[in-house]
Amino acid sequence: MLRWLTAGESHGPSLISLLDGVPAGIELTSDDLKAALARRRLGHGRGSRQKFEQDVLTIHGGLRHGRTLGSPLAIEIANSEWPKWEKVMSADPVAREDLLIDAGTGDEREIARNRPLSRPRPGHADLSGMLKYGFDEARPVLERASARETAARVVAGRVAAALLEQTAGIRLVSHTLQTGSVRTPEEAALPTPDDVDALDADPLRCFDREASAAMVAEVDAAKADGDTLGGVVEVLAYGLPVGLGSHIQWDRRLDGRLAQAIMSIQAMKGVEIGDGFATAGRRGSAAHDEILAVDDSADADTYPRVTNRAGGLEGGITNGQVLRVRGALKPISTVPRALRTVDVSTGEQTTANHQRSDTCAVAPAAVIAEAVVALTLADALLEKTGGDSVEEIRAHLEQTQSLQAVLTDRRPDSAS
Fold first, then answer.
1. Residue 219, domain member (yes or no)
2. What is the pLDDT of residues 354-383, one digit of tens each?
3. d(Cα 218, Cα 216) in Å, to the nearest integer?
4. Averaged pLDDT, 197-222
5. DSSP string covering 322-384, please?
6. Is 309 contained in some domain?
7. Which residues contact 26 (CB under 8 A, 6 or more apart)?
8. Residue 310 falls inside a structural domain
9. What number of other Cβ atoms are within 10 A of residue 176's Cβ?
10. How many angstroms separate the CA atoms of 388 and 113, rounded?
11. For 342, phi and psi rounded to 5 degrees?
12. How many distinct structural domains can be found in the chain?
C-alpha cells in the first residue's frame, strides 16, 4: 500500500510531501524531482509568479545514494519568497503593529500582504472555507486551497512514476486536448512516452501543432480581455498489466480511484475514462471494444481488441490496453476584470480580491494530472503484487503474468 500526504501553505516556509510504503531499491535523485517541478512551471498563460517563486528542494529521509530505502520518503519544497511572508504567515503570534509595516522595502504592496482578505473570490474555496471553519477573512483558507499545493503532489508523483517504470515498465505521458474553445481533432494521433520532450517544449503541451497555435492565440485573446481560460487534459499510461484494480468492492474499482485522484486537483470539474461522455451518446454495438482470438503469429500478453473506447479499464480492472483518463479544468477563478462579491466585514457589494495573474493553467494541470495518476497506479500495482523491494515486486509480477499467459494461450489448435 502506498500512502501519501502533503502539508504546508502557499506562502508558508515550505511544502512537505510524505510518502509511506515506497519499496526499497527505486533509483531516484534530487535532480529527478527538480526536473518534475520544472515541468510544472511550464506553459503559455502562466503569470510572473513562476519566474520568482523558485522551488528549493530538500530530501529529509527515505533515500540514500540514489536509491530508496523502504522507509518513508520525506521531501521539502522551500518557498524562496518566505522572507516577505514571515510575519503574515508566522506560526507564532505576531504583534498587531508588526502587521502594519512593510517588509523593509517601503513598498505599499508589502503592507497589503498583511491586510485581512474580506472579499471572497467567486469560484474559490474562500467563502465556503470561511463559513465552514469560522474565519472572518479568506487568508487561512486560500493559503491551503491554493494550487501551489500541487508542487508537493508532483514530486510525489515523480517517485511513483519511477516505481512504475522500474518495476513494471509502465510509462506515462500527459497532454492538452482543449484550451478554451479550441480542441485537438478527434482523429489526432496520441502521444507516447517518447514524445514527452516535444510536449514539454510546446507552449500548451499540445501534440497537434495547428491546434497548439490556435490555443496560444486563444490564451492571448483572453489575457487581452482581462479574462481566464480552462481546458481538458489527458493522461495516458502505456504498459499496464492486466488485473490492476478490482470489481469486488466500490472503493477498489480503479476507475473510481482515478476519478477521485483527478477531481482532487484544484479547479478540476469533470473526469472521464476512455471515450467517456462520447460513449454515452452511442449505441451499445458502437460503444464497446470487441475481443479477438489470439492466433499462432501473435505475441500478445492478453487478448487483442479492435478499439480502446473503454480507455484500458473494464469493470474497474485494467485490461491490458492503454489507459486513457481525462480531466476538465475550469477557467481560473481569479478573473483580472474582477467578479462581484460581498465584503464580509461590512456586508457591502464589491469586487473580489485579485491574488494571482495566470490567464491559463492547462499545461501545468496536465503535469499534475500525470502525477496523481502515477500515484494511483503505483498504489494499485503494490496492492496487486505486494513486495518490499523492486526485485520482489518484479518477481511477483512475473509470476502473475505467467499464470495469465496460460489462460490467454488457448488457441483452437493448442494441445490440451
1. yes
2. 766 789 999 999 999 999 999 999 999 999
3. 5
4. 97
5. PEEEEEEEPPPSS-TT--EEEETTTTEEEE-------SB-HHHHHHHHHHHHHHHHHHHHHHH
6. yes
7. 67, 68, 159, 162, 163, 166, 390
8. yes
9. 30
10. 47
11. -120, 140
12. 1
